[in-house]
Amino acid sequence: MAGKPRVVILGGGAGGSELASQLGSDGACDVTLVDRQAAHLWKPRLHEFAAGTIDSTLSELSYYMLGRMRGFRFEQGEVRRIDPAAKTVELDGPDAPDGFRPGPRRIAYDTLVVALGGVTPDFGTKGVAEHAVRLDERQDADRFRSRFVAAMIAAREKGRPTRIVIVGSGATGTELAAHLRQVEQAFFQPQNGGKKGLLKITLAEAAPQLMPGADETLRADVKARLHALDIETVTDAKISEITADSVKSADGTEYPADISVWAAGLVGNPCLKEIADFELDKKGRIVVDQHLRSSLDPNIFVFGDAASFTPEGEDMPLPPTAQCASQQADYLADALPKIIRGDEPEPFVYDDKGRLLSLARAGSVGMIGLGRKSDILVKGQFANAAYKSLQRRHQWTLLGPVRGGLAIFADMISPAKGAQLKLHG
Ligand SMILES: Cc1cc2nc3c(=O)[nH]c(=O)nc-3n(C[C@H](O)[C@H](O)[C@H](O)COP(=O)(O)OP(=O)(O)OC[C@H]3O[C@@H](n4cnc5c(N)ncnc54)[C@H](O)[C@@H]3O)c2cc1C
């Protein structure tokens, strides 16, 4: 594709995969997507893959296949270094199971987009790295699920419940707790009279309330639904240490745990500090301007969880959500060709559509704007439909109208995949 401007996108997650599909199918640029994984998995469903309410292998999309369908090239590899002067990116790997690794190589670009996401920080808390599971990528979900299944079988055989402690009551922690309660049923055995009580779930939050920062009404509703699922919630629980069999809080309280999950907050991907001398905010996210351009180089753009974007007139950066990453992908799919032609596009404007949670058997609930000044609490079928839409929108953007429509239809009728999806973080 001699002559076409070369756009390289680093990270094929919730945002990067949507941008690559849109720019690739547009055809104006020569698009390359880089990711260290071979297949795309939509991160907002990680708690469902971890709990096993959805089968991850049926939900992943091969990047090679997606690239073929949507007109972009896929390069699997770990991003090591960006050279803004030479306009190249150095990649390494992937590692083959036998340890073979293709040597480091460089990809040239005219315009570079960084969408490498974020991770769950441990804030230096003792034992998190050794003993807790963090849900940052699919390997974490697979690791959690295999430990969970083994623990539940042991619980059934020993007649003693498995104790799971989840630290952090944001979307990840809250939704995981609800989905685990749903999956518990799969371990009930008729010969023991379908005895319940194989799973004790504790959701611990450092802040004085659950879901810090969320609307009061939503918090109260979510708390009631979690309690209806017999999920214990503790607040003001500043966790000081995680051991192999317990979670300890600074006030000396100890929560016995067969499995600990650390779901407390999000910071920029640690590799962002290594790959170039970006300007980072205090959460390690790359500071960008109103066009999502980095201050390091006008040809390097950043979006999604990796970016720290503060809307005009606000003092806080936008929260790290798939909703935000998706809107920024749409913006760049339109703005980048303009910028490459030398035009100046309008700045990015975020349209907050609200926040929704899928709590499995306890239904869905959330706050959405519906164009009103203040958000309203939505529940039941409406909330269910509302949070399906983000995932459907993702499928549609990734696969295009025809294949997207078919995939959504297949999802709706396929018992394996089901449709417990959601709109916002
Ligand atoms: C359990 C859970 C539930 C969530 N629920 C919601 C929700 O309901 N609604 C919502 O709006 N948001 C939700 N979120 C947040 C949402 O998932 C993120 O905001 C979103 O995925 C960010 O998209 P992104 O493209 O910036 O990054 P990501 O989706 O994290 O993608 C980053 C990509 O970069 C790749 N990568 C990382 N490092 C490297 C490297 N060094 N080299 C090469 N490739 C690399 C990764 O493999 C990945 O594909 C949830 C998150 C979790 C964990």
Polypeptide structure, described:
The chain is an alpha/beta fold and 425 residues long. Among the domains are: 150 residues, FAD/NAD(P)-binding domain (3-Layer(bba) Sandwich); 135 residues, FAD/NAD(P)-binding domain (3-Layer(bba) Sandwich). The chain contains 11 helices and 25 strands. The longest helix is centred in the C-terminal third of the chain and has 34 residues. The C terminus is likely disordered. Flavin-adenine dinucleotide binds next to strand 2, helix 2, strand 6, helix 7 and helix 10.
Unreliable stretches: 418-425
Give the percentage of residues in beta strands: 15-25%
Q: How many strand units? A: 25
Which whole number gives the mean pLDDT? Answer: 90
What global shape is seen? globular
Structural class: alpha/beta
Helix content: 25-40%
The CATH superfamily title of the domain at 6-36 and 77-120 and 266-340: FAD/NAD(P)-binding domain
Describe the sheet with the most strands: 5 strands, parallel
